[in-house]
Description:
Layout: H1 3-8, H2 15-24, H3 42-70, E1 74-81, E2 85-86, E3 89-90, E4 94-98, E5 102-105, E6 110-115, E7 119-123, E8 127-135, E9 138-152, E10 159-162, E11 167-170, E12 174-179, E13 185-191, E14 193-198, E15 201-206, E16 209-214, E17 218-219, E18 223-224, H4 229-240, H5 244-257, H6 263-270, H7 278-288, H8 297-301, H9 305-313, H10 320-326
Parallel strand pairs: 9-10
Antiparallel strand pairs: 1-4, 1-6, 2-3, 2-5, 5-8, 6-7, 7-9, 8-9, 9-12, 10-11, 11-14, 12-13, 13-16, 14-15, 16-17, 16-18
Helix pairs in contact: 4-5, 6-7
Amino acid sequence: MNDDYLWNRSGPPDPDIHRLEQLLGRLRSVPPLPHLPEADAERPRRRGYGVLLATAAIVLVVAGTCRTMRAPAAWEVASVAGQPRIGSATLARRGRIAVGETLVTDSASQARINVSTIGEVTVDPDTRVRLVATRQGHHQLALERGTLHAVITAPPGQFIVSTRSATATDLGCAYTLHVDEDGTGLLSVTAGWVALTFNGRESLVPAGASSRTHPTLGPGTPWYADADEQFQDAVYELDFGSDAARRAGALHTVLERAEAGHAVTLWHLIRRVDAADRDALVDALADQVAMPAGVTREAVLKLDAAALDQWWNALGLGEAGWWRKFAAPMPGPQQ
Length: 335
């Protein structure tokens, strides 16, 4: 830098100072500096350039801060086994994954992701997961295939995992989510709750329950782990089957095997069977949990949302209004 140009503009212009002068020139004082005795003439001039440089420094600091704020956030990732990859780079021990990047594990590798400051996700072998977004109050992954295990301690609604067949919104919980190559999936909740949504179709999955997902139809009906295989197969047929005879047989199986504690399954199925089959499900649910005062059978059979929500509240699993606050309809599954 040329000191003569800096103090009195007598030397060749320094490129950096010249650029700052152009940037900040519109801020300079228009009135001329007052006349001062010669002995002190240099002092205000130097002070003026000092102000200019101080202002320039502030501009550079602010610009740097803005760049930092705009930079994509990244999460810490640790290799648990084998050699996971983030993009094309192999993760030796620890690394970071930024928004838009993909973590891939092969059959011999496993990784653990710190979800900002709210929890962690373990990524099993043969899994592909992408960081979609991370900001205050909103953190999202896209599970393209494979299996992940999430443990989240944040307030409800802050952690989301999207798949081709459903969007899983965490409501303060721990769960395992698996997605096959064709987009079908399985969610199993071990603590708390998860809301599965897709194009207006919703499943509320409590701890101890599981739900399948379908790439075109979305989330299926939750069932508890103590349900036998025949019950689970029948629920699957009612959710995703199209053959009328098979669906009739599946409904019979569900009604026959619905033991105490399967009210969550019965409640969801009321919305998912044909109108002619709703009566039987309403009766079965009423045998386990009485219809609340003010709720009419007619309203439930018409799938009145308020009536169904009130009946949900009677299950003792939390109020539907609380669910709606955090499990608002999400965009459809990733494309």
